[in-house]
Amino acid sequence: MIDQALLRELQNDARQTNRELAAKTGVSPSTSLERVRLLRRSGVITGYHAAVDLDAMGRPVQALISVRIRPPARPVIEGFREWAARLPEVIGLFVTSGAHDFLLHIAVPDVNGVYAFVIDRLTERREVADVQTTMAYEHVRAGRIDPVADERPVRSRHER
Fold first, then answer.
1. Is the pLDDT at 158 greater than 90, yes or no?
2. How far is Cα 158 from Cα 66, in angstroms, rounded to an integer?
3. Which pTM does this prediction carry?
4. Of 33, 51, 76, 145, which shows the fewest CB atoms inside 10 Å?
């Protein structure tokens, strides 16, 4: 319960002081500090990040691009994943099952940027067998992610 409260408050504002965090969660500052350290050490908290506005960054147009890779061999999939993750247009990447192997989330300055990304980057790759593009009109992000609602303490990925 304490861990969940700490995670909720940190997701609301990760820049608050430990004293503020402790007050908001109803624990002592030493308890707050120790629990947050344990959450980081166990891998539940993976980092602290600045949220940016894509419009203000000059990248207001977003698209989701499904990519099918052939042949579907581990080295080919891994090689494409590593290459695509480094592209500046890519702001998210999922390795998926089903008809396509990847779902790329890109953000670019305009519709021509989407076209250039697909034609000049993706289809130039030999392993790319199929590409389907979906333009995103709006992207709503979850304000926070709560653990599964149960009474068990939050566990690290190594304890699962």
1. no
2. 31
3. 0.81
4. 51
Q: Are 1 and 152 in contact (CB under 8 A)?
A: no
Residue 14, CA atoms < 13 Å, CB-side half-sphere: 13
Give the C-alpha separation, 41 to 156, whole Å: 9
Give the percent of the chain with pLDDT over 90: 82
- Report the amino acid identity of residue 95: V
DSSP-based three-state secondary structure for 15:
coil
Predicted pLDDT at 36: 97
Beta-bridge partners for 106: 63, 90
CB-based contact 6:35 (threshold 8 Å): yes
Q: Is the separation of the CB atoms in 39 and 155 below 8 Å?
A: no
| Contact in structure between 110 and 39 (CB atoms under 8 Å) | no
* Beta-strand relationship, 102-108 and 90-95: antiparallel
Contact 128, 66 (CB under 8 A): no
